[in-house]
Design goal:
single chain
Length: about 220
């Protein structure tokens, strides 16, 4: 437990907290956007299903990923995947879709934020099955991204890793919509999170390359 107080572990802990904040907020926006096109009676149910699914997936991926990253080559692959996540986040931050984000936030908060007389009224209509399918696909991708990033940032610090995964699950289960609002209001937080995830991705690629280099050379 004392390892948490070392400078390296504290640095890893700060990285993990920022990763969890940004990716939980991102996940919540995607869930809200998928649920925005549903009738009011089904919207809250879809958001609840989405957050529960994301929570369960994070637990499942956490149990598997920490073991899988011990396999030679998967650390490098995980770093490349996170690099792609960074590219997606960068594009979204550079070209924000304010209308879409507003619909997502209205759905998450069940409130008429733009005072147009409707809650997520501009979102295209869809069935509950369509919304649930969109949410599950997004949850699988984003939960894996989250667990990979946390595992990459917390390497060699098991206490930080456990804290990061528990925080990730707690944020999705309790505060996802609040974090989504926070990120929407203060965009700089998302940019800081993006920089942290980029750093973790590059470090994973660097470590992963040196891990596989002896096998390539042999």
């Amino acid at each position: 437990m004392m390892e948490i107080f070392s400078a390296e572990a504290l640095s890893a802990l700060l990285q993990v907290i920022m990763i969890d904040l940004v990716l939980a907020g991102d996940n919540a926006i995607v869930i809200g956007l998928a649920a925005a096109g549903l009738p009011k009676a089904q919207r809250s149910k879809a958001i609840l299903v989405g957050i529960l699914a994301a929570t369960v997936l994070r637990i499942g991926f956490a149990l598997a990923t920490t073991q899988l990253l011990q396999i030679v080559g998967l650390l490098l692959a995980g770093g490349v995947l996170l690099l792609w996540v960074c590219w997606k986040m960068w594009r979204e931050l550079r070209t924000p879709h304010h209308d879409h984000e507003n619909e997502a936030n209205e759905a998450l908060q069940n409130a008429d934020l733009d005072a147009d007389g409707t809650v997520a009224g501009g979102a295209p209509r869809k069935t509950f099955a369509q919304a649930a399918w969109q949410i599950v696909i997004a949850d699988v991708s984003m939960s894996l991204d989250n667990v990979l990033a946390v595992a990459g940032a917390a390497h060699e610090h098991p206490t930080v890793l456990i804290f990061g995964l528990v925080l990730s699950i707690a944020l999705m289960g309790i505060a996802a919509s609040f974090i989504a609002r926070l990120l929407n209001k203060h965009r700089w937080i998302a940019y800081v999170g993006l920089a942290v995830i980029l750093y973790v991705a590059l470090e994973m690629i660097w470590r992963g390359y040196h891990e596989v280099a002896p096998y390539i050379g042999g």
